[in-house]
Amino acid sequence: MISARWHACVLPVAMWALAMPVASQEPAQQAVRIGVILPQTIADPLQTAVIEAAAAGIAMAEEEFSFNAEMFGTEFAVTTIRSDDVVAAADQLVAEDHVLAVIGGYGTAEATALSQWAGGAGVPFINVGAESDTLRNELCGPSTFHVAPSAAMYLDAMAGWYVRAGFRRWYVVQADDAESASQHERMLWTLDQRFFGAEEVGSAVVAPGAGLSEDTIAQIRDSNADLVLLLTGANDQLAAVSALSAAGLEANVAGFPYAETQTRQFFAALEGATEKLGSNFRATAWEATLDAYGARELNARFRDLTGEPMEPSAWAAYQAIKLIYEAAFFSGGSDVASVVAYLNDPSSVFDVWKGIGTSFRPWDRQLRQPVYLVEINSAAEDAFSSAFLVGELPAIYMPGTDPLERLDQLGDLADRSTCQ
Amino acid sequence: MPALSQEENERIYVANEYNADISVIDSATDELIATIPISERPGEVRPRGMNVSPDGRIIYISVSDFNPTLEASEDKIVAIDVSTNEVLKEFRAGGNPERLDITPDGTQIWASLEATAQGAGYNVETGRQIATVRVGVEAEGVAISPDAKWVYVTAEATHTVTVIDREAGKALKHIIVGNRPRVVEFSPDGTRAYVTAEIGGSVSVIDTSTHTVIDTIDLGLDSRPVEIAVSPDGARLFVAGGGTSAVYVIDTATNTVTDTIREQMGRRPWGITINQAGTRVYTANGLSDSVSVIDTDCLCVIDNIAVGRGAHSVQVGRAPE
């Protein structure tokens, strides 16, 4: 049974006085309808933070793009379903709401199911929450487009920052699952092929929820690692940081940036250990203190609307709606085929407030984009100032280079892709 | 190379976004001759877009702050008398005004209100707001046609230009242009309007008789076009490529890029303007805190002048008599 559903069409926009639509250069479009699937059952407070931020991003996007659509005399609607049965929810969105695309993917399992569904339905699925490389490779779907950065992109960025900063001896803590094993393998490739001079000096596999054993902590100490990379879930990262701090370890600790670890709530949970361990740097897909490229305005609008910083999951959800909206408008056709064609077109340019025009990679349909390094501010007095931007990869200003090649410094290129 | 041949009755005015002041340059000597404070709170108060009264005697500056919320006490338009370099008047322009333009008769100012997605008209004499028109999200560029009939307002986030019937105070049409349009400028004869798209890397050419895009000039995805200066004869566009530290020269007869000026350009040229004779182009360089002076014959940078922090907008005004 599908439940917790809410549907919103064009609504009065308090911020801007409404007016009747006026003539536009483009012919009147058919309705643009977008579906969003959020999980219904959320057991973890960190995941709650991700989902609720995403919901807020959706609400803001709906408000703004309804405003935009009305300028052109077009109906715009976003329908959100909270459901754990994502396939049934997607079917319902298509059958009853005639959506042009479905947005979701909070977790690998959900994203995989929606990707497979999209391949059969022919309706684009916009993945905003799952970073698994399998979704971009052996499990890729012809109608799946990834807004969330891939694991490979994050690992390349993290290596870029840490190796260049002089952290050359890496100890890897891997979770006892296929996802983490894949990340570990990709990290080794990154160090071998893209960032010379760094090496893995040890590794351990830990079961989810088990924490670091005394033996593992001893191995980390004995390895003389200067960086401990945690390829584990968010709560396991918190537990590991606490254990390493209690043991008096001096190495820096970095964690794989799952969506939960990119939230202000996670940053607050790290606060107690950050100064001791040097684990106060995190990779993110978005940062609420970014103030260039129009990001100041986007962040400010979100803050005005919600009273909260724009979390990465809010940014991703907002951008997903924007991409579909633009695909419908710029392609000249509000039908699924036109939207898919526009998203697939390498010459389509998307502005996602990251200062550079971007597009989906033809080989795996991953959105090219920079990612950010933020520093957690342990002296923060509010959520907004609890982190601030300290790094960006790839650098978007590099005159004389090709912008797409610049962006493709992160993640897998076509020659490594197993996406068919 | 001294600029002795330049108009001695002109001054160059630069809005320094992070210094909260205006730099004044003598175009005859290319020397900084004055600094006009806008606020005693640099880094908080934010002067950006500027324009000049038709007689060149008043500089109007859109002022806001770095927290782009709906309303702030800093949101206003400031008028500076060039004969005294003092603030002549201020009037309220809530909603984070970013850029502005003045009607040919000097009686109205139209501004883009970034935070409220509006174009707004003001009576210059009284400072009273006379019209507000809904445009797209993150309004930025604003230009008034030479016949004063139309006001064009760009919207960064919506990728649109809204055509406003100025006398009616209403939107006539919305036009889709390239990604992240920044600035719009009319040709001297009013038959064309040119719109830069920073992310799209293009300039849209609009036929103003039909308010439709008739050509899109591709400068390259990494060109980052921002402001435009149109030569007095309308034959050339000079486009500031902010992130590339370049100026692109476009032939308007063919709508093609004919030259790219890079050598000795300041960093992040954002604002750009051309003098009345069309012999000099000036860019405001936000990362090198300078103004570059370009000779339009050799298409080369002949001088770089240090100004305040975050040079944003640059205009040519009349020198005191």
Automatic annotation (TrEMBL), chain A:
InterPro entries: BCAA_transport, Leu-bd, Peripla_BP_I
TM region(s), chain numbering: none
Pfam families attached to this UniProt entry: Peripla_BP_6
Signal sequence annotation: 1-19
Superkingdom of the organism of origin: Bacteria
Residue span(s) of domain Leucine-binding protein: 32-379
Keywords from the UniProt entry: Amino-acid transport, Signal, Transport
Family: Belongs to the leucine-binding protein family.
PANTHER family named among the record's database cross-references: LEUCINE-SPECIFIC-BINDING PROTEIN (PTHR30483), PERIPLASMIC BINDING PROTEIN OF ABC TRANSPORTER FOR NATURAL AMINO ACIDS (PTHR30483:SF6)
Protein name (record): ABC transporter substrate-binding protein
Organism the protein comes from: Devosia rhizoryzae
From TrEMBL, chain B:
InterPro entries on file: Host-pathogen_enzymatic-act, Lactonase_7-beta_prop, N2O_reductase_N, WD40/YVTN_repeat-like_dom_sf, YVTN_b-propeller_repeat
Top-level division of the source organism's lineage: Bacteria
Name of the molecule in the record: Beta-propeller fold lactonase family protein
Signal peptide: none
Matching Pfam families: Lactonase
